[in-house]
C-alpha cells in the first residue's frame, strides 16, 4: 500500500515525464531530458525502496538518496526555466514542477533529519 508521499512522488515523476515530452528537440535538451527523467523517477523509486528498508540505517540511506535525486531534479528544472523560450512551453506547468520539487525536497529533508535524531 502506498503512503501519501509515495503517491505524491509517483505523480510528480509522471508529471515530469509528460512535461519533458513537450520540450524542444534541440541537442541540449536531449541530455537535460535524460537527466531530469532519471533523477525525478529515481527520487520516487528510492523512497519506495526505503519503505522496505531492512533497518533504520537502510531506510535513512534510501531517503537520503531520494533527497539528493530531488535536489538534482530541481536543478534541471531551473536550467530549463533559464534557457527555454517562454512561448515554446507551458511556463505555469514548469513553475508548478519547480515548486513541487522544492516542497518534496523539504519533506524528504525533514524525514532524513528526523531519522538521524531518533
TrEMBL record:
SUPFAM superfamilies: IVS-encoded protein-like. It holds the Pfam family 23S_rRNA_IVP. PANTHER family: FOUR HELIX BUNDLE PROTEIN (PTHR38471). This is Four helix bundle protein. It comes from Namhaeicola litoreus.
Amino acid at each position: 500500500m502506498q503512503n501519501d508521499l509515495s503517491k505524491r512522488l509517483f505523480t510528480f515523476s509522471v508529471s515530469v515525464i509528460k512535461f519533458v515530452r513537450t520540450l524542444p528537440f534541440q541537442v541540449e535538451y536531449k541530455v537535460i531530458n535524460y537527466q531530469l527523467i532519471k533523477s525525478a523517477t529515481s527520487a520516487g523509486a528510492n523512497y519506495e525502496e526505503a519503505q522496505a528498508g531492512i533497518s533504520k540505517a537502510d531506510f535513512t540511506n534510501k531517503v537520503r538518496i531520494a533527497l539528493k535525486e530531488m535536489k538534482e531534479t530541481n536543478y534541471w528544472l531551473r536550467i530549463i526555466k533559464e534557457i527555454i523560450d517562454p512561448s515554446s512551453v507551458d511556463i505555469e506547468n514548469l513553475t508548478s514542477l519547480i515548486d513541487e520539487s522544492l516542497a518534496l525536497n523539504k519533506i524528504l529533508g525533514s524525514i532524513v533529519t528526523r531519522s538521524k535524531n531518533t
